[in-house]
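Dear colleague,

Following up on Tuesday's group meeting, I ran the structure prediction for the two-component complex that the binding team flagged. I've pasted the input sequences exactly as they went in, so you can double-check that nothing got truncated or mislabelled along the way. The structure tokens for the whole assembly follow below. Feel free to forward this to whoever is handling the docking comparison.

Inputs:
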Amino acid sequence: EIVLTQSPATLSLSPGERATLSCRASQSVSTYLGWYQQKPGQAPRLLIYDASNRATGIPARFSGTGSGTDFTLTISSLEPEDFAVYYCQQRSSWPFTFGPGTKVDIK
Amino acid sequence: QVQLVESGGGLVKPGGSLRLSCAASGFTFSDYYMGWIRRAPGEGLEWVSYISRRSDTIYYADSVKGRFTISRDNAKNSLYLQMNSLGAEDMAVYFCVRGWGGYDYVDYWGQGTLVTVSS
């Protein structure tokens, strides 16, 4: 099973700042990695698929990079609605797995 | 709009069985892979099982293989999870999910149904 590790666990930032979230896989997942955003009381929403592609309707301030074992989700300038928990998920091999999440909260 | 509504959760004794159902609406059910994801208390998201459009490809997490059976009825727009030999480790909120297009990500989630295993 591919284990995903996310860092940091919590990121405290102010609106307008840049957020950089990391996801590391225990073995290569090529570019088969996605990112989700989850707000309290809501289901996760797919932001990025296959490492760098924004899902439909996702603002351009969200971008993803990486391949192999190291991936990054960047939010270029945090909006108030971006404070949430972010998960990565790999689809390279079954069982598909999720990372434990990074919480982005307001500093 | 897309809706996934789970039912069938509840309290069951160790070793017991439950059958979860998911009623899908707002899309052509037979066009999508479907699955079950669970979150145990204090734990992360675990992908339990996944089924292809015509049920010809099925995956199970090792933790449930041999005990859980996923199935679907495209005529009824419904997804099921038969859970047998339940243990404390199966206690979780179970989410019905839709696989996104030709990619194995999730684009829609149900609200979840709680499975409690206790004597």
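The interface with chain B takes residues 1, 32, 34, 36, 43-44, 46, 49-50, 55, 87, 89, 91, 94-101 of chain A (CB under 8 Å).

Cheers,
M.
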